[in-house]
Amino acid sequence: MKMKITKMTALVLCLAVIFTAFGITAGASQDKLFYLVLGDSIGYGSGLSNSNKACYGKIVADTNGYDYANDAIPGHTTQNLLARLENESVIAHVKQADIISVSIGGNNFLLGNMAALLFDVIVKGDVTRAKETVDKFYTDLDTIVKKIHEYNPDAIILMQTLYNPQTGYIGEAYQASIDLLNEAILRYADENEGAVVIVDVASRLKDSENDFAQDGIHPSVQGNEKIAAAVLEKLVELGLGESATPVINEKGIDIRVPSIFTYPLELYGKVLHFLSLIYGVFA
Asked: How confident is the model at residue 125, as a pLDDT?
């Protein structure tokens, strides 16, 4: 009888240790911060052929040991992101997230009215259309932030500034529009204290040869690593991360784009510059 009690006691103790260990493990998982990326192709990592394993969002998550989801979609504008915030799986991620990186706004210029915007800026030196686009962006951004905080009042929203990947005449026109967009982002942060935290990506991506993919739009491997570093530094500053040095578990692979697909934009810039000279004579 004594032997039976001893065995039973040992069994109970063993089970207790197992369940305690399981509880500790489950608790540790629950203590992990959840990091979510929302927005467009920049957030998605479209400059990389292995974006799901090497985009800046994944690097940030790997560095700090966060749970992670990426709900960014290439080509999305602010209006698309607002629609995305009605998706049940995205809403679930937003409610779960402690930190949310948002990259949005570039496609508000690039899609639909880019040719007209570039014509206005390069040929006529007129930014009226660009300002109208930015005003709409500002309104949408306000709605996006309020929608996120409606779902999750405690989420830290990291709002990224927009970089300029172009050079030459097109680059000059891009810069005029991007300056207006970034001014709107900074103004929104000033006018809505605590609503967003600015991550200044624009100041980090300046190397036109190496920071951008061959498509002339998206961050390259180096560009993604620089964005990750900027986000990580901000998280350390906020007390939400311990290291600002990116951990690269899988090296990114740059996409390859034949120059025939990128040359027309450069040519368009030259044509617009030529038209601007003529316009300057007759205006």
From this structure: 77
The set of residues, in sequence order, having a beta carbon less than 8 Å from that of 27 and lying 6+ positions away, is none
Distance CA 249, CA 230 (A): 18
Residues 6+ apart with CB under 8 A from 151: 85, 91, 94, 95
* pLDDT tens-place string over residues 233-264: 999 999 999 899 999 999 999 998 765 555 45
Q: Look up tokens 């120059």; give the residue.
A: 259
Q: Where are the domains of the chain?
A: 32-282
The architecture (CATH level 2) of 32-282 comes to 3-Layer(aba) Sandwich (3.40)
Under DSSP, the state recorded for 254 is B
Determine the pLDDT at residue 274: 44
pLDDT above 90: percentage of residues in the chain = 63
Q: Nearest 10 degrees: CA dihedral of 160, 161, 167, 172?
A: 160
Determine the Cα–Cα distance for residues 231 and 59; give it in Å rounded to an integer.
10
Beta strands in 64-189 (DSSP E): 67-70, 99-103, 156-160
Length of the chain: 283
